[in-house]
Amino acid sequence: MQTELTIDKNALDLITAEQAWHYNIIPGKVSDDEIQFYCLKNDFMIQEELELLLGKDIILIELAEDVIRKQLVKYYPVNARAKTGISHFSNDFNDFLPKIISEAQLLSSSDIHVESYEQECRIRFRVDGKLAERYRFSKEKYPALVNRIKIQAHLDIAEKRLPQDGRIIFKNEETKTDIRVSVLPTLYGEKVVLRLLNANAADITLDDLGFGEEQLKLYKTSIQKPHGIILISGPTGSGKTTTLYASLKFLNKENVNIMTVEDPIEYTLDGINQVQVKDDIGLSFAAALRTFLRQDPDIIMLGEIRDKESAQMAIRAALTGHLVFSTLHTNSAYGTISRLLDMDIPPYLVSGTLSLSMAQRLVRLLCPHCKQEETFSNDALPAGEKLSIQTHHKAVGCEQCYFTGYSGRKAIYELIPVTHEISEKIKRNKLSVDDLKFRSLKDSALELFVSGQTSLEEILSYLL
Asked: What are the pLDDT digits (tens) for 303-337?
């Protein structure tokens, strides 16, 4: 029985997802006269139906069930998260673009990458922080798809030399999604990235984000102070914005005036005044903050501290009795304090306004349907690390997780509340990481690993 597959990805659109799953088949080699299909069962009736459907001779090659299932999930995703079949590339661009977006939503994808290379083009989805290829098609079809995206995003279809940014509001029967569109000219054509933004923050709560019990108690205490700065750090895609919105939702009361300035506005919350940054007309983070101080706010959320000016405005807002939330791109909670000092913010101002410094990351969780327990050896850990556990879980892969081995993500945090003692050391510019006692990202990552929620590979970077 043959086990090595040769799949012509340009032939995937010969059949729909419904047909692939109905017959349990995957297209193989295609010639002028015949088409090879890998199948679960070499059935004469299936062969006849396919010949009638496609108008060519059909050759069926039988493979093991696990091999066929894996390829079906990869190329024709249909499972608990995507119950309806998604057809492969079609010449009907009015129909195909909504199908791509709908599939991305069903897979809980954050980004769609539409890319052109020398010989062919592809579409990739970012799911749980990792990119996975979903479609591959010929170069002839690419310009029409890009133009369709540009039209939907109100961009100039004639401009192919300069980057462009736009926005699509995608609506279906159940949801409304705000899609940020970025078009970038590359060597072999324009690359398009569609960022899917959840337009509603109704389901976001602090209790569901991943805080430990003590961390959650400490965080809630810090954000209920009447003034000061709450800073959240982490790389792009670490969930900082989600944490900010969950915090605002927790604090959103009828007697509180909450104002935000963002780029872009990723969620909408009733009862909160949200402002979109527009640098081209002078509406920057700092300019918006200056106006906010004349709008009688109680709580201000600054999407990101980008420069010295926005940092100074955030400090000024906190000094005048406001609670300020913002983010910084640093690697740790301690690094956030150092970054403010590096921006020439005087130590006495940092010590007098900073209430909490927090860092966070997102860790992929093992798929509960297929994760596998095995004996653990400390030899797998970096030098100097040791765990007193007998077994651990590893990623395997199944239909439910599209054979990635992972399903969903969970945030891990490290929190440094600025106590009076820490404040005094910041004021004298003598604070070191050895002065701090807190639960680190490493500690939180190890807890997820020991409890069997994630794999060693996923947390290895926190142990190095």
From this structure: 899 888 889 989 999 999 999 999 998 889 999 99
Digit-coded pLDDT (tens) for 101-135: 888 888 888 899 999 999 889 999 998 888 888 88
Residue 359, φ and ψ in degrees, nearest 5 = -115, 150
Element (H, E) at 243: helix 240-251
**Quick one: what percent of the chain has pLDDT higher than 70?**
93
Structure tokens belonging to residue 173: 């029967």
Task: Say if residues 64 and 97 touch (Cβ distance below 8 Å).
Answer: no
DSSP string, 167-222: EEEEE-SS-EEEEEEEEEEETTEEEEEEEEEES--TT--GGGS---HHHHHHHHHH
> Is 52:66 a contact under the CB 8 Å cutoff?
no
Own/partner contacts of 136-144, CB < 8 Å, gap of 24 or more, are 136/9, 136/10, 136/12, 137/9, 137/10, 137/13, 137/89, 138/10, 139/189, 141/89, 141/91, 142/116, 142/189, 143/189, 144/91, 144/93
Token pair in block for residue 61: 């090659």
Task: Quote the CA–CA distance of 426 and 434 in Å, as a whole number.
Answer: 13
What is the pairing mode between strands 299-302 and 130-138? Answer: unpaired
With tokens 């906010």, the residue in question is 292
Pairwise CA distance, residues 407 & 215, whole Å: 24
Please check whether residue 83 is in contact with residue 164, taking contact to mean a CB–CB distance below 8 angstroms. no
Which helix H or strand E contains 90, and what residues bound it? none
SS3 164: strand
Instruction: Return the structure tokens found at 156.
Output: 């100039």
Spatial strand order of the sheet with 323-328 comes to 273-276, 258-262, 299-302, 323-328, 228-233, 354-366, 406-417
Please say whether the beta carbons of 139 and 118 come within 8 A: no
- Compute the distance between CA of residue 195 and CA of residue 197 in angstroms, rounded to an integer: 6
Lowest average pLDDT, out of 161-165, 278-282, 402-406, 409-413, goes to 402-406
pTM of the model: 0.77
Spatial strand order of the sheet with 34-39 comes to: 25-30, 34-39, 57-62
Distance from the Cα of residue 405 to its chain's centroid: 17
Residue 200 pLDDT grade (very low, low, confident, very high; cuts 50, 70, 90) = low
